[in-house]
Structure formats: C-alpha cells, structure tokens
Structure prediction request, 576 residues.
Amino acid sequence: MRVGARVANWPLAWKVPLLAAGLLIGVAYVISQIVLNRLESDQENNLRHLTSAYLDGLSTAVLRSAVHADVWETFDALDRARDRYAGLKVRFAIVALPDGKVLAASDPLKFPVQSPVPADIEERFPTQDGLTIDATSGRAWLTRSLREEGYSVGRILAEIDISELLRVRKQVLATLVAVNAGLALGFAILGSFALRRMLKPLSVLSGYVERVRAGCADPIPESKRQRISREFDLLFDRFNAMALALNEREELASRLADQEKYAVLGKLTSGMAHEVNNPLGGLFNALDTLRRHGDDAEVREATLSLLERGLTHIRNVVRSTLVTYRRGSGDNSLRPVDIDDLRLLIEPEASRKRVQIAWVNDLHGALPVVIESVRQVVLNLLINACAATPAGGTVHLRALATESALTIEVGDQGPGLPDDLAKYLVGHSDEALGTGRGLGLWIVRRLVADEDGEIRVIQENGLKTLIRVTWPFRENLSRLERAKDSLSMEAIHAE
Amino acid sequence: MPNEPGCVAVVDDDPIMGESLQRALELEGWRAVWWHTGQNAVDGMFEICPDVVLCDIRLPDMGGEEVFRTTNARSRRPSFS
Prediction:
C-alpha cells in the first residue's frame, strides 16, 4: 500500500515510460512465447517426419530377417540404417522379438542377443507405435511394431539424441529475450526523454500554480515559453491572464483594506472627539482654578496633578490613533500596551452605545506578530461587537499568548452572527461576499489569512458570539514561508 | 446664623472634567458632589437634593436627558446639561 502510494507520487515523466516499457515487455513476452511454441511445434513435426522415414526404412529392411529371427541380417540392416540416417543421431536401436527378447541391437554389448530388453529402457518407450520426447534429458524414443500378414513379429525401439534441437530452441529464446529487452529498454529511454520534453511546459506551469497557492501570482515569462506546443501556449496565455486578474484583485483588496481602515477611523471620530473634548473642558476648568486659587500651594499641586493626568490621557488617545493609522510602520513586535491602547479608541464608541467593556489582557512582553494587522483586526471586531450588543450589554476582550501563537477573543451579547457571515469569516463559504455586507469582516478574514492565522466563531444558543483569532508567531511563519518557497521553487525547477 | 452653602451636583463620567468641576465649585464656596453615572445621579438625587445639577449629555448608562426626565418627575430642582 505504501509502495503503491509512493509509486503514485512519481512524476509522469517516469511513470509513463516505465508503463510503456512494461507494456512492451509484456507484448514481447507474449510474442516470444508464440514464436517458441511455433518453433517447438515445427521441430516436433520435422522430427516426426524424420523418425517416421527412419522407421519406415528400417522396418522394411529388418522385417524379413525378423520373421526368420536372423540375427546377422537384422544387425546388418541396423548397421546400414545407422550410416544412412546419421543426421538423426540415433543413440541405439533394438529389434525385439514378440517375447521381449533382443533379436539384434545397434550396440550388442549393451543389449546382447536373446537378452530381455531392460525394464528401465522398456518403460521409456511408448506402448503404441509413435514418438515420445523428453526435453529435460534431450532424448526421444521411437517404437514401431513389425507385422507380417497380421501377426506381430517384433518391435523396433530406438533412442534419438535431440539435444541439438533443444540447443537451437534455447538460442532462439536467448535471441528473442535479448532483442526484446534491448528494444524495451531503448524505447523506455527514448520515451522517457520524449515525454519529459513534452511535459516540460506542464512542470513550468505546475511550478507557477504552486507559487499562486503560496500567494505569489507571477505570470510565466516569455523565456519559459520557447518551443512549446500550441496547446501549452494557450494554457500559458490563460494562466497569465489569471495571474494578472489575481494581481489586480489583490491590489483592489489592498486598496479596499486601506479604505476600510479609514472608514473605521470615521466611525470612531465623533467618539474620539468627545474623548478628547471632555478632558479638555476639565483642563480649562483646572487652568481657571489655577488663575483664581493658584496662590494656595495645596490647590496648585492638586490642580497641576489633574492637568498632568488630563494631558496624559489626551496624549494616549492621540498616540493610539496614530499607531493604528500610521501607514506601513513595519513594526513586527506587539506589546501588551498595543492591545490596551485599543480600549482608548473603542471606549468612546462603547460609551455612545452604552455598552460596557470587559477587558482581560494576559499578554506579557513583546510578541513577534505584525502589530498593524493585529490591531486593525481587533479594532474591527470590537466595533462590530459594540454595534451588535444592545444597550446595557457587555463586549468582552481577552488576549493571551502560547509558546507559538497569539490568541485574541472578542465576544458580544448581540443576536448572533448570521450563518453566511460566520461561514464567510472562517473561510468555509464566500456566499456573503456578494451581499454587500460585512466589509469589515472581509478585511478581518483577509488580514488574518495574510498572516496564516485562524479564525473560529463560537455561537452560544444563537444569542452570543465569540470570535477567536489566532496568529502564529513570525518565527513559525517564516519557517512556513520558507517551506512554501522551497516547494514552489522545486516545482519550477523540476524540469 | 451663617447661610448654608448651596449644593451643586456634577454628573460626568470623565474623571478630569468631573474632578476639576467639583474642585472649582468647592473652592468657590459651594458644596459639590460628583456622580460618575446616570444611575448614581438618579439614586443620589433623592438623598441629597442638590440645588443645581450639572449633567453631561452622554453618560455610559443613560443620557443626560433621561436623567433629567427621571428625576424631574419628583423634583423641581433646576438642572443644566
């Protein structure tokens, strides 16, 4: 099973030639078998004809002497037949009488006259007239009955050496195997080269498609399109059109994200103005107090402390706004205060909606995530949570970090996120995209996906919504990106 | 018998505005109280009965107008929002 899976992963440029070679070997095997069978059949037929002619001649020559049991005449006939049929390679020939005793044999020392034919020799011969072939020992045995006027007067038994025929058969087999193996190997190598050449554009295309998957939609350059077939030329054209469309879409998405960021700023502006204006009024009160009662040291000290606190608050609000909307800060380290700052931005909006904020920030030290992206995502989620939560309700935020990731949860007490938006947010469906709703969530999904993060939506009885976003730390991300880059470059160079 | 100073209530969730107003009013000789939320104001109004109420229009739990309507039904004290 594992071997099968491994073979399935081999490149086409290997699999197809190997398959073709395998088929060629199969065909060659079948053809070789047919040729060998035919050869064997032809050889056997020739042998039958030859042995038949030999027995015809010999039986005619020995019949008379067998009737008269004339040993010398029979021996003489056997001797002449050996010279005449030398090409047949007769190892021995016996003329046996009906009682099974030897009348005469070509080898009288081995088969003396009037001795019984040895049982181990006798059993090799066919009981009826005919020919028995044993390819293993390279021998053939012939039997012919001698009859005179319907009476049996004896049998001719002859053993023939057929090793020459078998040698020829082996030679033919070796030639067939060598030729077929050579042809199969040659065609497999040629096929492999031809196929690799034909599939080269596919490897290039596969590499660029892999780069798209890794988030880089580069068109295929002209230098990679030389000497390719018309079909691949069209395919490359379509891929380049798709890469162009993807890049345009990415650019549009980037612009939309920027616009959405400033739209959020617009939403928060009135609340933030209130947040700055209120302490400003208090600061003017404090200034007036200083003018009228500044001579009193205790009043002066208390009023200056109030002024300092008010100015610090205004500075924090302004700084938080600047950090959120500063373009391309490139800061890849998030501190706990960067999350707490967001509270300053969302609190005016929450106050306007009369929504309480429950804030738990369990972060410690700097975390390797893209601060700008995380803050925009959290701010969008907080704005949505404030909008969904009815007056008197509470919006929850909890931030925590593990060894490898940052997790931020934003919960609300609204009526629940509609199914299509929830599915869209976690990336299971794009249905909500065409409805014109949820641009803020679209930005959230995109920003989180850009950082290889994960979003989960947890709905409790359809009455409360908790959105949990997890960002892997940049060290982990860098490893992931390196792996992706390496994969895509391997695919491109696998030519 | 010296005149009892008037009581001014400040209703504002902003700590700077609330504290500065309370301090200024006290320095000017008024008795000042500061409530952070509308509900605190509604509850405190019936206990203290301030002479003047200075109320922020936007409070975390209810608007200044709502505080005025709720308390005005029982009290005729003047109020500024």
About this structure: The first strand of chain A starts at residue 90 and ends at 96. The beta strands of chain A are 90-96, 102-105, 130-134, 139-148, 151-161, 356-361, 394-401, 405-412, 454-460, 464-472. DSSP finds twelve helices and ten strands in chain A. The CA atoms of residues 366 and 387 of chain A lie 31 Å apart.
